Amino acid sequence: MIQDFTYLKPGNVKEALAMLADHDDCKIVCGGQSLLIPMRQGLLAVEYLMDIKGLNELSYIKYDAKEGLKMGATTTHRMIEKSDVIKKHYPVLAAMEERLASTQTRNWGTIGGNLAHGDAAGDPAPVLITLNAQVKVASAKGERVVPLGTFYTDIFETVMEHEEMIVEIQIPPMPAKTGAAYTKFNLLQNDMGVVGVGASITLDANGACKDAIIALGNAAVTPIRAKNAEQVLVGKKLTDKLFAEAGEAAGQECDPVSDIHASEEFRRHLVGVLTKRMAKKAFEQASK
Ligand SMILES: Cc1cc2nc3c(=O)[nH]c(=O)nc-3n(C[C@H](O)[C@H](O)[C@H](O)COP(=O)(O)OP(=O)(O)OC[C@H]3O[C@@H](n4cnc5c(N)ncnc54)[C@H](O)[C@@H]3O)c2cc1C
C-alpha cells in the first residue's frame, strides 16, 4: 500500500527547482510508470512527491542540422516513437521505442523518467550512449550538461544531486557515414531485455572504421560501454571475423548478474551474439 505523502504540483520549471531545493525528502514523479511500482510495494516512502507531468515546457522534440536533436524531459516514449524528424535522422531511436513496453506505458512514461530511473535494463540508455547523447540537468543554482556515458554511477544511481532534475536530452547530428543499430533479447516482444546491445559505426573515406561505440544494457549494474570490443573494430576494414571478435570481447568485459531471467553465463553469451550482429548491422548502414 502506498504510504501517505504531500503532493506538490509546480506550475513551471522554476517553481519545480525551488520546490526541490526547499524539500529534503522530495521525489519527482512524472509518468509514474517506474516509480509507483516500488511505492505500491511499500519499498519506497517519501514525504513529498512532486508531479512534473504537467510541465509542458519540457515536452518537445526539436531538430537542427547543426545542433542535432533536443528532447525535453517530459517527452513521452510515444512522441519519440512517432516523431517524423526522429525517424528520419535517428531511426534507431524510433525503432527502439517501438519495442519499449506497451502502447499504454509509452503514452504515459517519459524519456526523462526512464533515464533518471537508472534501470540497467532500460532500452533508451544504450541507444543514446551510442549516439553520444548528453543530459542537461538543472537545479535552483544553475544547469550542467553530462554525457550519458558518465551519468550512471551504480545500481539505480546517477550523478544527479537531490535538488537536480533532468530538463533536456541532447543528441549531436549523426556524423557522415555512420550507422547505428540496437536490439534486445527478451522472451516477450515488448518486455525489458534480458540484455540489450547498441552499436554505432562511423567509416572513413577509405571505408575503414573511424569510430565505434558499443553500449550494453542489463550486462552490468549500470548501462556500460564495451570499450575492448570497440577497439577490436576501430582503424580496421571491417569483416565478419572482426565482428565475431568484437562480440567475444564484449562478452568477456561485461559484468552481468545471474537472476531469475538468465544466468551470468547466458547473458555473456547473448552479449557476444548481439554485439556481433549489431556491429555488423551498423556497419552495413554506414556503408550505404
Ligand atoms: C509494464 C511496464 C513495462 C516496461 N517495459 C519497459 C521496457 O521494455 N523498456 C524500458 O526501457 N522501460 C520499460 N518500462 C519502464 C518505463 O517505460 C520507464 O522507466 C518509464 O517510462 C519512466 O518514465 P516515467 O515518466 O514513468 O518516470 P517515473 O516513474 O515518474 O519516475 C521514474 C524515476 O525517475 C525520476 N524522475 C522522473 N522524471 C525525472 C526528471 N525529469 N528528472 C529527474 N528525475 C526524474 C523519479 O523520481 C523516479 O525516481 C516499463 C514499465 C512498465 C510499467
Structural features, described:
The protein is 35% helix and 25% strand. With 288 residues, it is of the alpha+beta class. Strands 4-5-10-6-7 form a five-stranded antiparallel sheet. A hairpin with a 3-residue loop joins strand 4 (61-64) and strand 5. Helix 10 packs antiparallel against helix 11. The protein starts with 5 loop residues before the first strand and ends with a helix. The mean pLDDT is 97.
Short description:
This protein is 35% helix and 25% strand.
Give me some keywords for this one.
single chain; 288 residues; alpha+beta
- C-alpha-based Rg, rounded: 19 Å
**SSE succession:** EHEHEEEHHHHHHEEEEEEEEEHHH
Question: What is the arithmetic mean of pLDDT?
Answer: 97
Low-confidence stretches: none
Global structural class:
alpha+beta
Rough outline: globular
End-to-end separation? 54 Å
Number of helices: 11
Q: Kindly estimate the percentage of residues that lie in beta strands according to DSSP.
A: 25-35%
Strands, total number: 14
Reading side by side through the largest sheet, how are the strands ordered? Answer: 4-5-10-6-7
Each distinct ligand: flavin-adenine dinucleotide
The percentage helix is 25-40%
The major beta sheet can be summarized as: 5 strands, antiparallel
